[in-house]
Amino acid sequence: MGLIVTLNDVAKLANVSKMTASRVINHPEQVTDELKQLVFKAMKELNYQPNFAAKALAANTTRIIKLIILEKVDTVEPYYATLLMGVAQFLNSHQYALQVVTQKNAGIGDCDGYIITGARRDDFEWINELNRPTILFGENRHQYDFVDSDNKYGTFLATSAAINDGYEHIIFFGIDLKESFEYSRERGYMDTMQKAGREPQIVRFSNHSSQSQNYIQEHWQSFEKNTCFICSSDRLAIGVERGIQHMNGQIPEEFGITGFDGVFLDQISEPKLTTVKQPVMEMGSKIAELLLKKITWALPLDEDHHPNRTNRIEVVFSPELIRRQTTRNYHLN
Predict the structure, then answer these.
(1) Among 23, 57, 75, 80, which residue has the least CB neighbours within 10 Å?
(2) Domains (ranges, CATH) in the chain?
(3) Residue 333 pLDDT level (bands cut at 50, 70, 90)
């Protein structure tokens, strides 16, 4: 039997301190690429395999992150599949396991922290009772750390493009939720319309394509040609597309459509949907990264302590307008 390789051996070969070697292994996001290369090279040469389970037990941690989805997944499943991929890949690269929970009561249990998405106003009393580091996916007015895309900027892009494309009438189809992201999307549309001297028109639905499709068909006579529909989700946009096609309207010559999300649904519609694309995979990776940092900050301080943090974390990604076949001047993406 060969000699047991220890962390001291790795540190010595890499010519770094034991604490630095430990940090490279347990918190690689906190060290430089040069240090990581030195330590990982030494680990490979010595065939050193960290025992993460033992480390977690000794530190009274679980190395488990729970992602709690507080809305009906069937309305947004492609979106969440992409988000989960971003979260899971980052956690896996840092030796953390991910558990997905779809009920609040099932979310309480052993873990090191929570990622919460789909939170509504009624959920925050329950969220306040969680006694682990927590970060939300989605902007909120409750002072919780969050990661989101710039919703207001997204609808600014969509509305500005519709104006520049020559659509005379521009209508916003929103999601019937009193939540921060929806307020921001509506505000981006309204501000852009008002600055252009246009009259805003807003209609709200639950986030189902059948709702917007039925509305288009039932109110068809009220829509003039040269109208563009700015939708707060790709689901609503697909419903608008189907409704216009059912009524034999011409897309994009007579009617334009822009969605919001840019995750899978925009690419399976026919014609393909112009949309405001959110970088959901990157957002998932970032929210996992930030939660692990919060967990580190919550640990007892040692001689190489982490600074105290009092400011709220707000990370906002810029969305991108992807032009396809449901608006004029489209590009074949």
Answers:
(1) 57
(2) 7-50 (no CATH), 64-149+280-317 (3.40.50.2300), 151-279 (3.40.50.2300)
(3) very low
